[in-house]
Structure formats: structure tokens, C-alpha cells
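Entry 14. Ran structure prediction on the chain below.
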Amino acid sequence: RWRRARRRQSLRRIARTRTLAMRPPTRTLSCFVLCCLLQLVVSSDPAPTIFLHYLPWYTGNAGGGRPRRGWCDARLSDQECATGQNKQYIGGGPYVGEYDQRQSAVLEYHSLLAAAAGVDVILVNVNPTSAFHLEVCHLLIDVLAELHELHALNLSLALSYDNSAAETQPLIEADMPVVAALLARAEQYGVSHVDPASGAPAVFVWSEHAAADVWSAMRDALPPNTTLLARNAVDFKPSDGNFFWLKPMRNGSSDDEREDAPDAYWGRYYLLDSEWIAANGQADLLPHERNSLIVGAAYPGFNDAAVPIYWNGGVPRLIPRVTSSGETYALTWEHTLSFSSRMSGSAQPLSMPWVQIITWNDWPEGTAIEPAVDDARAYAATREYARRWHAQHHLGGGESGGGSGDEDPMVAVEAAAAILRARQAGVISHHTLIEARQLLLSGRYADANATATVPDAAPSLAQPPVPPTPLPTQPPTQPLPPPAMVPSPEPAVRPRVDLAGFECSHVSAAPRWRRCQRTGEAPQTRCDAAIPKPHGFCTSTEA
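Output, C-alpha cells:
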């Protein structure tokens, strides 16, 4: 009897165990479903991104068109600008000297440095009625596509729509097909910024005087779910979010009595007020009309004392680069990094997953972080701030994949400049160019510099490269002379050709394209008629 009782007890225990094993794990399943829902909520927020405001403004003396466009007062004659004098910016200018953005080597130099600094997106400020803006935009898309194809560089492109002359609905609607075509081109070649949450691009909008008209026209012309961002804390209803800019002093003083003394001014209250208005100024709107997305601002300063009188009305505007409170670039970055969604004391939650660096290359207004002859501190600091921004949002690094090296960022500048000079002088082979780029993007800046500086064995196509000028980490008392720039023709186009009898350097995937040239002949120029030449990709069908 005792054995039978023990056996019955064991059988009951086994049966109970099997029943529990077959029973649905309700608690585990509930936790799993809850985690999935939380993930959906979290993923609905835009991915943390660093935008770099980029201006397509500049030409050199060679290449046709107006000489030194953007560098010289537009009211002066071509002869007056061609002399290299009459510059409309303060300081010594770019580290590589005044450049021409119609050269792909220049745009590649900018892209490599942006990637090395940890930037995610190049935000191109474009006026759709400017043929020059469109030319630079198209060429920059080509450059980014090649870097993406050959080096898996995920530095992408977004647009900032800026046409102050489009004040009526017909003019605004005429701009939209151009904006849509640029976004479609960038998407076609895999370099368009697309936020993972919305699956659509973002467009920054400057047209405050006709916000509702721009909203309507963009909603009709652009892809669905495109995120439209209005400048300043205004126009909440006809937008999906707001980006902040900057507010300089006029004639050495601020119109806000709360502001700091001129020697300590960096635009603090403009940023605080913008955040407060975004948090508290939408109470009259319906819940679905309110904006919670805001874009922070980081800038090194502002100084337009050298621009023509029609630019600022003869009243110079200023934000000192160095204040009694510290460097403006550091102060604005720290302000952005310290942002809290409820810091403005409102129940309206705000989200600041994006930050815009203002700017890469606005030399006339003195906001450039691009390395200068006499100062490169803002660029040198960008990589660390980008690392902190991504770390704060639990990311290991920027989308671009750059800025991972342990070397001094100044060495990255010298390496990118060496690649630029070698390309302009025509003394670097395609194989060596790819090697130097890859070393730079891998953080091996000194090796990239050495690779680009040593000329290839092939005969020189132009003058030898200019020796690099030592890059200062502190502004010297006397500005260093800018390195000489050697103009050169653009590289071969990427045409549709029959492979028979042609030499092709490489072939990419989607869309397929080839850089081909028949032995002993000039590069082919046939391509899709809808794509501007000579820097257009062919469509995948043609390829």
C-alpha cells in the first residue's frame, strides 16, 4: 500500500508538471507584448541626428561664370572680383583657400571632413530658382553616392528650402517640382536622409511669410509623411516641427534687456525663449495640430561686418566667437545637450532628437565651422560633441560612420586637404584615391595624409600638389596665407556606354553606373537627357 501511494503521488506530480508546461505562459507573454508596444512607441520618435547646414554659394576664378561668386561683393565687376581682393568675409578664409563648389574634389573634401566629425546629414540650403544651387546639389549627390558605393559611407543629404522671393502661391508651387526632383534623385542614389521612424525625408523651410502656402504645396508635391520643419517657434499648425536658428546683436547691442553684456552675449535668451514658446504657445491648437519635435542649434558665432550694405542694411550684426563666458560653440552645444523635455515648465512634451550645426561654410556671416587658415577650433571640437550627442541618445556613433579614430581631428583636416590638392593637381591614381579615403574614414588620418601626399608613379597631369600649410589649433596673431589652389577640369562623367572597347574603373550596384572611357579617346557624355550634364548619373534602365 505504501508503494502504491508513492506511485500515485509521483504520477500526479508528473501530470501536474505536464499540464503546466502546456499552459500558455500568460505572464511572460504579457511582458513580451508590453515590451513590443513600448518599442513601437519609442521607435515613433525621430532617430537622433546631427544636421550640418551647408551653403552652395562659391566659385573660383576659373571654370567660367562670375569669378569668386560668394567670396566677393556681387555688386562689383568681374574684373574687380577676379583680382582676389574685395572679399566679403572676416578673417583669413578657408584652410584650403577660396574654393569652387563646381569641383567634385571640393565637395568630397567637405564630405570627408563632415564624416570624420561625426555628422549624419549634410543639409543643403537651396533656392530652386538658382541654377548654380541646383548644379552644386546634383554634384554633391554624385559625390555622396560614390563615397557610399565605394566606402559604405552613410553620410546622407537633406534639403533646406529657402526662396524669399516666392511670396505667392503660384511661385511657391513652381518651386515644389524642383524640390521633389532633388529629393527623388538623392533617394535614387541611396543618399537621401530618411528618418527610420517616419520612413520619409525631412525638409527645413525658411518661408515664414507664406507658411500655410508652402505647407499646402509641399504636401501635394513631396512624398507622404515628409517631415516639414518651420524656422523659429512659429507656424506650429502648418508644420511638423520647428528648428531654431540664432539671434545676433545689432550694432553691438541686444534689444533684450535680459541679455548679457555684449562681451558675454551668445544668444542664450533666444534659445530659451524659443523652447518656452514651443512648449507653451500651442494651447489654442487641437492636439493633432501641435508640434512636439524641435531641432536644437549649435553655432560658433556670427559676424557680417564685411558684407555689402544691402545685406544687413549697413548695421553689422555680431555674436562673438569667444565671450567672457567661454566659446560660443561650446556654450550652444552644452545648452543643447542639457535640454530636458519639460525644462520650460509646461505639460506639453517636447522632443529634441535632432540638432543643426549652423553652419559649415557661411563665411560672409561668420558662422562657418569649416577649418580656417587662422582658426579650426570649432571643427576640432565637433567630433567630441557629436560623440556625446549620440552617446546621450544611446548610440555608439553617427550614421556616417566617421569620427571613430583616436588621432587629432587636425590631422584629419590635413589628410582631407592633401587628398583635395592631389586630386586638383591630377597626381593621384584612382586606386590611391580610394585607399587614402578609406584610411581617413577609418580614423587613420596620418596614414591617409601620407598616402595622398606621396605622388603616384604615373606622369603628372598638372602641377605638383601644394605642400600643406601647418594647421594652427589657436588663432595666430597674424593670419597665415591660404594655400594655393590649382584649378583642374572635372573628373570623367558617368555615362551610359557599351562596355566593348572601354576601360571602366568600377561598376556599382543599384542604380548601376560606370566611369568609362574608350582607350585613347575622351570620356563619353551620353546620358539621360533629364539629368543635367556633365555630372549626371544614368538611370538603372539605361545602365
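Residues 304 and 434 are 39 Å apart (CA to CA). Will compare against last week's run tomorrow.
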